[in-house]
Design a protein that fits this description.
Blueprint lengths: L1 H16 L3 H8 L14 H8 L1 H26 L4 E3 L2 E3 L1 H17 L12 H11 L1 H18 L2 H23 L3 H17 L1 H9 L11
Antiparallel strand pairs: 1-2
Length: 215
């Protein structure tokens, strides 16, 4: 039953993550966000295309869908456990999988032919539901990094690295679930990979700033 529920929360997480709020909101204004700017459906491209208000709404909704995936996983799995050797499979595992599935849905949404955003807001939404202290810390690093440099990509990368950095001592010294750290390692690695084109432009001095309009 537990394995079935874990598969179910992974599917639900993916479907929640696949809801393309950026595309939905842009279409209300008769704009195809996938044909504008970077073509991504996340808040940064919406900001450059439609302005701050629309970007804030998209960012909030993308955060909420990640958080909802984790919360639903907690309700569905509850206190079920399964021992595999020395490891106990349970709610923390299911919630981490649901969060990663939501991220995957945002990046590769089934509703948009698997072309979405970079997964940053959904990553933080899931992490805030999993481990608020790490999620909020990483979010602050993201905001400060983007604000100081003017680059959303650099802020995102430093933010996800920040979550991993704070979860290491929380796991080793304070006994936080190792599943949180695994979530941060996998999630941050995926997000850094999704920013590989941004990293190349940053190194070449050609990266666009947050204030730049979509071209």
């Amino acid at each position: 039953m537990l394995i079935t529920n874990i598969l179910l929360v992974a599917l639900l997480g993916y479907l929640l993550g696949s809801i393309p709020f950026g595309a939905i909101i842009s279409r209300r204004s008769k704009i195809d966000i996938q044909q504008t700017g970077s073509g991504k459906t996340g808040a940064t491209n919406v900001l450059r295309t439609m302005g701050r208000k629309a970007a804030a709404v998209v960012a909030l909704l993308d955060v909420l869908k990640g958080a909802l995936a984790v919360v639903l996983a907690g309700f569905l799995i509850g206190h079920e456990q399964l021992s595999i050797g020395s490891y106990t499979l349970g709610i923390f595992t299911g919630q981490a999988i649901a969060g990663l599935a939501a991220m995957a849905g945002h990046i590769w949404p089934v509703f948009l032919r698997f072309k979405g955003g970079r997964g940053v807001a959904t990553f933080f939404g899931s992490l805030i539901a999993l481990c608020p202290v790490a999620g909020l810390f990483g979010g602050e690093v993201l905001i400060i990094g983007a604000g100081l440099t003017g680059f959303a990509s650099l802020g995102s990368i430093t933010g996800v690295i920040g979550t991993y950095a704070v979860l290491v001592p929380l796991t080793l010294m304070y006994g936080f679930p190792v599943e949180y750290l695994v979530y941060a390692v996998i999630g941050s690695s995926v997000i850094i990979y999704m920013h590989r084109d941004n990293i190349k432009r940053l190194l070449a001095g050609k990266e666009r700033k947050i204030s730049d309009k979509a071209g």
